[in-house]
Design a protein that fits this description.
By secondary structure, the chain is of the alpha/beta class. It is built from 16 helices and 13 strands. The two termini are 16 Å apart.
């Protein structure tokens, strides 16, 4: 098939939505499909077998450029002879809509939850006055009402609920295809080597429990409540270390200092080798205020690493399985540092972690990008058969 994938920014080194889009594109192309990515921003000119079509005169996505991008993509889809299109954004309609970041309206509401109640109203006013945010909401409404959108592939039940609650979108036109990930092949010996190398490099003893946190946006992903909760474990003299992957401003180093936990925190910085951090870690902790379906949680679970997250993360469906087996802990309120600390304390126990890991056996195959794309292609074929 000749397929178009639509996303505002296509960056192989980007975060969850961008990384997932690239992995989907790669899997589709590996099966002989002709894949073109239509985007407004991209740091590369070519990406293997994947064709890249960059909007002319692109740049920072202002309100005006977002509108122009939506119009430009729709023209490309009409004139490009594509069999089908998969749009990863609610700003642009496609044959299949797969809103990898969830809905814009839920994103904005959950971003407000980061702030203290006293300052939320001020932030809300700024949102209402923001041309870009108003444009995003307008484009989202237009996209969901566009007859071009034949079906929505939600990457979690959380995203499906957003569509129902905010837009009363027809549930019969929504299929949940759980988010997925691609991990490199490695042996048991390689994993142990990585664990030893990383721990030695960061001066971490084998008897210390390592909590791993990774985020492009640490504020949204709950780093502040995490540090407060982690301080409780340190104060109780538990043998714990917190490893932070991503870009961190000086405020977080200062916060670690003020909480008296600086010597227990390792600022790893940006990395393309998360799999090695998972191998070195014991628990993935991701107390996010908002995540349609966190990729780091999925990757950790695929490696048998217990995870802690929140009810505002679509991937939390996988932490507690349908049969009730626990692969970690899910807290209801990202700001509840006591609940977060208690979940972390429980997973300091090696036997508890072992039970969570055993509950994850077989998960790697079902959450693979191959299975995800199998289901996505089937959905595309079913939709095309109905047209």
């Amino acid at each position: 098939m000749k397929l178009a994938l639509v996303i505002e920014k296509y960056d192989p080194s980007g975060g969850g939505a961008e990384r997932s889009t690239r992995q989907i594109a790669q899997e589709l192309a590996s099966r002989g499909n002709q894949v073109t990515v239509l985007c407004a921003q991209c740091p590369i000119d070519v990406d293997g077998a994947i064709q890249i079509a960059l909007m002319p005169k692109s740049g920072k996505l202002t309100a005006g450029r977002l509108t122009r991008f939506s119009n430009w993509v729709q023209t490309q889809l009409m004139d490009g002879g594509f069999d089908a299109s998969i749009s990863m954004t609610t700003a642009v309609p496609g044959t299949i809509l797969q809103p990898r970041s969830g809905t814009a309206i839920e994103t904005m509401q959950r971003n407000l939850a980061i702030y203290p109640t006293s300052s939320r109203k001020i932030k809300q006013v700024f949102n209402l006055l923001s041309p870009k945010k108003r444009t995003l909401l307008k484009l989202e409404r237009q996209t969901l009402a566009n007859p071009m959108v034949r079906h929505i592939a939600a990457n979690s039940s959380y995203v499906a609920r957003q569509l129902s609650e905010h837009y009363a979108f027809d549930a019969d036109r929504v299929t949940v295809i759980p988010n997925a990930a691609t991990l490199p092949d490695f042996t048991v010996d390689e994993r142990q080597t990585w664990r030893t190398q990383v721990r030695e490099g960061y001066r971490i003893a084998e008897d210390q429990t390592v909590f791993v946190f990774a985020a492009m946006n640490p504020m949204l992903k709950g780093l502040t409540p995490l540090m407060i909760a982690f301080a409780r474990l340190v104060a109780a003299e538990m043998p714990v270390v917190l490893m932070l992957a991503g870009k961190y401003k000086k405020q977080y180093v200062d916060q670690a200092d003020s909480l008296g936990i600086r010597d227990k925190v390792r600022f790893v910085g940006p990395t393309n080798e998360m799999v090695k951090l998972y191998a070195a870690g014991d628990v993935l902790v991701h107390p996010t205020f908002y995540d349609p379906s966190s990729k780091v949680v999925i990757e950790a679970l695929m490696m048998g690493i217990p995870a802690i997250s929140t009810s505002y993360n679509g991937a939390s469906d996988m932490i507690v399985s349908e049969d009730g087996s626990s692969r970690g802990r899910v807290i209801q309120n990202p700001s509840d540092t006591n609940a977060l600390a208690e979940a972390m304390i429980q997973l300091v126990d090696a036997e508890t972690r072992k039970a969570c890991s055993e509950a994850s056996v077989g998960l790697a195959e079902s959450l693979s990008m191959k299975v995800h794309v199998d289901r996505l292609i089937k959905l595309v074929e079913n939709v095309l058969a109905e047209i």
